[in-house]
Structures are given as structure tokens and as C-alpha cells.
Amino acid sequence: MAMMLRYSSIFRQSFRWIGQPIRCKSSANTGIQCEQRDQVYWIRLDRTKQYNAISLELYAQLTKILQQVAKNDHIKLAIVTGNGPYFSSGNDLTNFSRTDMERIKLTEYMVDLCRQFVGTPLIGAINGPAFGIMFTILGLFDCLIATDRTYFISPFSSLAISPEGCSTFTFPRIFGPSLASELLYFNRRLEVAEAHRLGFVSRIIPNDQWNDHIEQWIYGQQGLVKTCYANSMMNAKSLVRNQQIRNELHQTNQRECELLFKHFLSDECTARLESFFSRKK
Fold first, then answer.
1. Residue 188 lies in a domain
2. What's the rounded Cα separation, in Å, for the pair 152 and 189?
3. Which GO terms describe its molecular function (predicted)?
4. What is each CA distance from 143 to 4, 7, 152, in whole angstroms?
5. Distances in Å between the alpha carbon of 213 and those of 121, 223, 226?
6. Are 152 and 248 in contact (CB under 8 A)?
7. Span 188-199, pLDDT tens digits
8. For residue 177, with 0-12 CB atoms within 10 Å meaning exposed, 13-18 middle and 19 or more buried, which class applies?
9. How many domains does the chain have?
10. What is the extent of the structural domain holding 168?
């Protein structure tokens, strides 16, 4: 288990390109598109045929990118969104069918990815349905906007696994313990209108106005780039998510991934995945 919790020191040592444009590998190889534009760093999930499911390799790439963003003084904001009709269908289930060593690496990546959401102010532009970890991890973002075609679901118990993304800490605080239990244990689907009413999403944008709205919100004359100072945003974030909260999130993250790793190896999870892959064939 100590091996599972070992964070990848290679990532933390290799990406200190402060003040330089961040390079991103081609979408065809990594399932991700990146663009640095006028102090905003765009991260677009781009595995549209897989509904932007997160592969083991995509976890590694996302972690690298977020670490670079957090250390780049020329970036005010980072925005994560998806290409195609889905934000993300969550974990690529082929991740769970890998060898034990690859499952250990998967949990390391999941731990390390969650650790990156305490850096640069982070916006989630949720362009469609969000499943599993790509729903639960949204509780770590600073702001979420969504299209009217969005909904959220975390079908953990139907897959015989347990929650992650620090959701066992964030969701009870966002939704209250009863609704959080429905979302994390009982596979409840959360519609975007309810997510907005509860404050999980700050605004809902009609799908046909999505691109124009974001462009004006970020880059317009009264947009975030022109009206928000980076140090002010970071100082405010340090109060909203102070050191005590960050420590609790890191501890929750480790506990969740320890339990998740046990579920990966359980008879229930193995049987459920065998059923899934046999139907797929």
C-alpha cells in the first residue's frame, strides 16, 4: 500500500517552466487538447469516441499539465472542458482490467491529480454529461458553468467500487449529507437545474449560446482576463481553501484511493467488470 501512495517525484521535478508557454502533446496521442491564450490555459478532453473517458495515460498527462499551470506566473486561470457532446464519462473501465502494478499506478495518478486542484484558479466548463470521477472531482474546482444538456451521475455502487475525487469530503458540504449519500451510494442522477439551485453550478448556458457566452465571460471588455488580478484571485482562494482544508482534502484523497484499490481487487468488482466486457463483446 505504501507503493500505492507514493507520489510521482518525476512529475514534480520536471516541469518548472515558469513564465514559458506550456507544451501539450498532440490530441491524437493523448486524448487531450491544450491552448494557452491571453493568460488563460484551456484543457480540452478529446476522446470523443470514448465519451472523453479518462484512460491511465490521460491521467498522467492531466497531472503534468496542471502541475505546469500551477507554476506558471503568466497564467491567471485554467479552464477544463470537453470536446463533443460529453464532458466526460469518467474512468475508462479498461483501467480496472489492468495488471495489479498498473492499478497501483492508476491510484497514484488519481491521488496526484486531485492534489493539483489547489493551485491556479480553476474553472470547469461542463459542456455535457459528467460521470464518475469527472463528476466527483468537480467539487475541487473554483467555479463551474454548464450547458443545459448537462447532468451528473456517479454510479460507483453499480460498478462495485467506492467514491473518489475527494467527494466524501466535498459532497456532504455542498449538498448536505442526505443528498450526498444518494449521489455517492445510490447512483442518483443529478440534473443541471438542481445542481444550479444547490450552488454546485454557478450558471446554466443554453447549448446554442455556449461558445459565445464563454468568449465574452473570459475575454470580453468586462471579462475575467481584463477585470480580475491574479494575486487578488489567489489570495482569495487561499482563504476559501485554506491550509487546514487542503490538508483534510489530501487526507481524504489518500483514504479514498486506499479503499478504491481494495475494491479493484474484490470479487464483486471483478464479476461486474467481466459482465460489462462480455456484454460489450
1. yes
2. 6
3. delta(3)-delta(2)-enoyl-CoA isomerase activity
4. 30, 27, 16
5. 19, 10, 16
6. no
7. 999 999 999 999
8. exposed
9. 1
10. 9-210+230-273
| Residue whose C-alpha cell is 464532458 | 87
pTM above 0.85, yes or no: yes
Backbone angles phi, psi at 127, to 5 degrees: -85, 0
Q: Using CA atoms, how far apart are residues 34 and 148, in angstroms rounded to an integer?
A: 25
CA distance 150 to 134: 13
Q: What is the DSSP string of 162-184?
A: ---TTHHHHHHHHH-HHHHHHHH
User: Whole-angstrom Cα distance, residue 100 to residue 206?
Assistant: 44
Residue 163 has which C-alpha cell? 467514491
What CATH number should be reported for the domain holding residue 49?
3.90.226.10
Q: Quote the cell numbers at residue 22.
A: 506550456
What gap in Å lies between CA 241 and CA 200, rounded to an integer? Answer: 16
